[in-house]
Automatic annotation (TrEMBL):
UniProt protein name: NADP-dependent oxidoreductase
Domain called Enoyl reductase (ER): residue spans: 11-309
InterPro entries in UniProt: ADH-like_C, ADH-like_N, ER, GroES-like_sf, NAD(P)-bd_dom_sf
Main enzyme class: oxidoreductase
Lineage start: Bacteria, Bacillati, Actinomycetota, Actinomycetes, Mycobacteriales
Entry-linked SUPFAM superfamilies: GroES-like, NAD(P)-binding Rossmann-fold domains
Amino acid sequence: MTRVAVAASYGGPDAIEIVERELPEPSEGEVLVEVKAIGVNPFDYKSYSGALGTDASKLPIALGSEASGIVVAVGGAVEGPGGTIAVGDEVVVSGQNGTYAERILVPARFVLSKPEALDWKVAAGVLAVAGTAYDALESVGIKSGDTVLVHGAAGGVGSVVAQLALARGATVIGTARRQNNDALRAYGAEPVEYGDGLLDRVRAAAPNGVDASIDTVGTDEAVDVSLELLTDRSRLVSTAAFGRASAGGFLTVGGPASMERRRLASPVLLEQAGAGVFEVTVAKTFPLADAAKAHAELQSTHPRGKFVLIP
Ligand SMILES: NC(=O)c1ccc[n+]([C@@H]2O[C@H](COP(=O)([O-])OP(=O)(O)OC[C@H]3O[C@@H](n4cnc5c(N)ncnc54)[C@H](OP(=O)(O)O)[C@@H]3O)[C@@H](O)[C@H]2O)c1
């Protein structure tokens, strides 16, 4: 048996219920993982909020797409993206739905070795944000010498976008609320406060212009400022402004091609996180039973860094 958090209906965070589930033995190619920590992402609450539509036949909705833990059983000789997976291995699970659980049964292709340098909590929260960040950087071809405007540069995705862009040799102007400006400076980005007058502040911070922009916020302000500054709209990508992208002539990420690009990049991204090429910080941990509380907090102004659930 395992305890699992699911959304039993569409609505707010109180739609989340903790239920008990039977777990079968692993079939050929499957891995049973005892979960140590679970990364929380905005998609988790969007999956039952109605923001992505509603379909009663999908209820209850399995929550979560990433976790860290220990392998407790395998089905046959199991090969993951990084090689053989054995009982006792410390692993990261990424890309599989339903990680809000004490134990999860997953196909081996979603199971990677946890770098020793990452603790359980950080390891659980790295890949969703880093995969999205890498995907966004690739989609607009960020390279050395670019000046990049990153909207939401203190956020989970935005902070990795900014750090990986800097590692590629780009200059980064990052939007954030005032309290997060020092954190942006600490990793080498130029902070700009969002809100009224944003366009003028970005122009002052980037007197030679902006070559590309990555929006991780999705507000009209973020999109409008980027469109005003860029000469080439195909160098704007958003993780959130889906409604405006086709008419606006800019890109979004998140479809099947994105998922494949992220899956292929995951081993390297995990290695880079372990080696300190970029950092993911943990803002808060919550018991798995308090998943609803974590979702309510994540939807309002919240501390910088990842939220993590502990079973
Ligand atoms: N398409 C995809 O595949 C994909 C994948 C992952 C995430 N996403 C989406 O990307 C978005 C960000 O995810 P996340 O994990 O980075 O979330 P997050 O950690 O909560 O970060 C969001 C950031 O947005 C900033 N923000 C809030 N209001 C703002 C405003 N009015 N103007 C500018 N910035 C504002 C906040 O910065 P301050 O704290 O400085 O205020 C916050 O740090 C979410 O909508 C998520 O669903 C999409």
